[in-house]
Each structure stands twice: as structure tokens, then as C-alpha cells.
Design a protein that fits this description.
By secondary structure, this protein is an alpha+beta fold. About 30% of the residues lie in helices and about 25% in strands. Helix 9 packs antiparallel against helix 10.
Length: about 450
């Protein structure tokens, strides 16, 4: 086990920073247990850290910060049972590549794949697809070190009072070291991308969401430009059937979706009137593309432009009404950002702190470039999302604290009972978690 003195830690977007006393790199579950026991004995707190893709200070610690970088192996893949046993510190991009070599894939993933497995499930990370749940809903078993340094094996049959809460835990129930997660035999997806308008998407939203396995769209408010992505399982081989080559796809991902977005953001923050000309250009360069792609390469897109993000899960039953209200509100208070709003949908699950607990949801993510003043924009969006009974994404920016959050989760008390059992002395607490959990 390695333990380093560490000057500071910051998240991917560099909007949070901390200076822990100790930065530990355990190499085994027993090492993790020893770290937790030592911290509990000396009155210190412990926070696990993944790749830092959250925008909230979930992992900040003044005492001990634990990285699971050494827990980066696929332990077992069993396609007959449809499961993979993986180290909790493995990054999703590396994991999907490794699963592909073994003929396996996830049923769904988000559009960023740099998170660790534990970080992704701990915050309810999701992709899109009205018939498919979040990554957390695919978890079948967990190995977890609790607040007293005891190693626990949690599953739905032997730990029914603890396991559901541990699947979206915020890192407040213990340190997860191994995850058994549901996988599928490798499959191909027919991916269709193209430009359209927000009004056209809104008119056809329910049909698009229900008739496509995966559906999402990106939308530039106060301009009307939208970019749709649809994916459906294909029996065909992974071959491009449209005009774009693989090189052109990579060029679009890097040069257009990152390079041009960064250049536009830098230009518009200096000269706000440049926003419309940039988006008019975007209407011309948005590719129309159709391709058959292996599942391990279909979901994620490189995201290098640092930004702020607020994302809420709204009841799917109110999706069209909420989108129309958001469009109207942003029309009255025009946005300056050139980073689009992202809209996705996922299926209901029954995990106490899952954003989709008990209902199908539509996720709406609003972004601002990291050098922009996002406060007024995010406040207005959050007020609107709350009117539609939204729940904030645990890894994204929001203003809610414990009392407001409790009203939005009918199984909130079940999670709190699990937290008190697994971490009775608050070893895994920090200031932020105390505010949102009232611990």
C-alpha cells in the first residue's frame, strides 16, 4: 500500500479543491479496511475518490483521501449468467474495451466514460433509453468496507436492507472495492445522428423516445438548432453505411464537438453578439451520419471543454410540458452559452437515492462554459425543474439541502437507516454530505 503526502486535489472542472492530510493508494481490500480502522481510531474522516468527474464536493477531505487506482482489473466475466466482476477503481473506458475482448458489453452507458466504476454507480450515472435503467440498476453484488473497517458482501438476497442503498451511495456508506454488474453479449448499434430544430423534436418527442432503444438530443436555446442521436440494435456487421469515414468521425468528435466549441465559447464570452453567427455556422457543419458501431464504441464522446453543469431528472410524464416551459423561460432570459442543453431518458428503478427511483425520467442538463457567469442561468433552470418535481443529479451542481431532498425521495429514510448501520460514527462524512444528508 502506498501513502503519499499530497499538496492538493481538484476535480476535472477545477471548481473544487482540497488538501488532505494523507492520500492513500491501497492495493487490496484488506489495505482499505486498515485505512478505515486507523482513521476511525484517530477521529479522522475518509473519502474515496475516483476520476473527479463530479461537479460537487462529494469527495473533498481534510483528512484521508483514498484512490482505488489499483483496483483496475476485470476479475471474471460469465456470459451464461450475464455478469462481470470488476475492480471498483477501473475506469469505464478501459472496462468497456476489456469487456469487448471477452465478447461482452454494457446495456447502456453515458456519453462520458472516464469515471471509475464505483464513482459512476455511486452517483447514479446514466445513459439514455426509456427502456433501460442507469448503471446503478445493473449492479448485482458489492464488496464494501464499512465505517468500522469491516469487509461486507452485499447482495439483494442476503442484504435486502442495505444493498439497494449501497447501489447509489454517494460514497457515504463505505468504500466499494469490487462490483458484480450485469453485462450483455456484445452487440452492434445502428447509430443515426443529424441536425434538426427544437420545435421538430418537441413535436415528435414521445415517439422518438419510445420507438428508439436509445434517444437523446442536444439543443441550443434562443437559436432553435438541435442535434439528434438515435441508436438501435443492428444485426448487421460493424461497418459504416454513411458517408463519414472513421477518420471523419474522430475529426468531428475532436475538432467540431471540442475544438470549435472551445473557440466559440472563448469568442462569445468576449463578444456576446458572436453567439448567433457561431450557431449559424454550427447548423452548416453538424454532420448527418448513419453508422453501425460495436456497443463498446457507440455511447461515449470525448469531452475536453471544461464547463459547469446542472442536471435534473424530471418525471417522464411531464417531459413535453417541461421542455416547452424551459424553451419559453430561456426565450425570455436569453442564454449566452454555446454549449447545448442535453436531453436524455431512462427507465424507473427502485434504488432509494436513484434519481429515477419509482418513475421513468427525462434528464435535462444545462451547461455553461467554465469562464462564464452561470449563477443566474442555473438558478432559473433549477427553479423550473423543481416546479416539475425534479431531482438533481448527485454529481452535478444544485442548491438543495437535506430537507428539500428528503421530500423528493420516498425511500430517503431507508437510505439513512443503511447509512447509520454501515457508518454509525460518520467516518465517511464531509461538510457537503452533512448538508445534503443532514448527518
Amino acid at each position: 500500500m502506498r501513502s503519499d503526502t499530497f499538496r492538493y486535489w481538484t476535480n476535472w472542472n477545477r471548481n473544487f479543491l482540497c488538501r488532505p492530510e494523507r492520500f492513500a493508494r491501497p492495493r487490496s481490500t484488506e489495505d482499505v479496511a486498515g485505512i478505515v480502522r486507523d482513521a476511525a481510531r484517530t477521529g479522522r474522516t475518509v473519502r474515496p475518490v475516483g476520476s473527479g468527474y463530479s461537479y460537487t464536493p462529494l469527495v473533498q477531505s481534510d483528512h484521508v483521501m483514498v484512490t482505488l487506482d489499483a483496483f483496475d482489473r476485470v476479475e471474471r466475466v460469465d456470459l451464461a449468467d450475464g455478469i462481470a466482476v470488476v475492480g471498483a477503481g477501473m475506469r469505464l473506458d478501459a472496462l468497456t474495451r476489456e469487456l469487448a475482448t471477452r465478447g461482452a458489453a454494457f446495456a447502456n452507458l453515458g456519453d462520458i466514460d472516464r469515471q471509475t466504476v464505483a464513482g459512476a454507480i455511486g452517483t447514479g450515472t446514466h445513459g439514455t433509453g426509456l427502456g433501460i435503467g442507469s448503471l446503478s440498476s445493473r449492479v448485482r453484488r458489492l464488496t464494501l468496507v464499512d465505517g468500522r473497517g469491516t469487509v461486507r458482501e452485499l447482495g439483494p438476497a442476503d442484504s435486502p436492507d442495505l444493498f439497494p442503498s449501497a447501489c447509489v451511495s454517494l460514497g457515504a456508506l463505505g468504500i466499494v472495492t469490487s462490483v458484480t454488474i450485469q453485462v450483455e453479449p456484445m452487440y452492434n448499434l445502428l447509430v443515426e445522428r443529424g441536425g434538426t430544430t427544437f420545435d421538430a423534436v418537441l413535436r415528435d418527442f414521445d415517439r422518438l423516445a419510445r420507438t428508439n432503444r436509445n434517444f437523446e438530443f442536444f439543443w441550443f436555446p434562443s437559436h432553435g438548432l438541435a442535434y439528434v442521436k438515435k441508436m438501435n440494435v443492428s444485426d448487421g456487421p460493424p461497418v459504416r453505411v454513411g458517408a463519414l469515414s472513421r477518420l471523419a468521425r474522430a475529426g468531428n468528435d475532436i475538432l467540431v464537438e471540442n475544438g470549435l466549441v472551445w473557440l466559440a465559447a472563448e469568442t462569445v464570452r468576449r463578444w456576446p453578439r458572436a453567439r448567433k453567427p457561431w450557431l449559424d455556422l454550427g447548423r452548416r457543419v453538424v454532420p448527418q451520419e448513419t453508422a453501425v458501431v460495436p456497443a463498446d464504441r457507440a455511447y461515449a464522446t470525448p469531452r475536453y471543454v471544461r464547463h459547469y453543469e446542472v442536471e435534473y431528472a424530471l418525471p417522464y410524464s411531464a417531459a413535453a410540458q417541461a421542455l416547452a416551459a424551459l424553451d419559453e423561460m430561456l426565450g425570455r432570459h436569453p442564454v449566452k452559452t454555446v454549449i447545448p442543453v442535453e436531453v436524455r431518458c431512462t427507465a424507473a428503478d427502485d434504488l432509494p437515492l436513484s434519481m429515477s427511483q419509482g418513475r421513468d425520467v427525462m434528464y435535462v442538463a444545462v451547461h455553461a462554459y467554465r469562464h462564464e457567469d452561470y449563477g443566474e442561468l442555473f438558478d432559473r433552470c433549477e427553479d423550473l425543474f423543481l416546479r416539475f418535481d425534479g431531482r438533481p443529479h448527485w454529481g452535478k451542481m444544485h442548491s438543495l439541502q437535506a430537507e428539500a431532498l428528503r421530500k423528493r425521495y420516498e425511500r430517503w429514510d431507508e437510505y439513512q437507516r443503511a447509512r447509520r448501520e454501515l457508518d454509525p460514527d460518520g467516518v465517511f462524512m464531509n461538510g457537503y454530505l452533512r448538508r445534503i444528508l443532514h448527518a
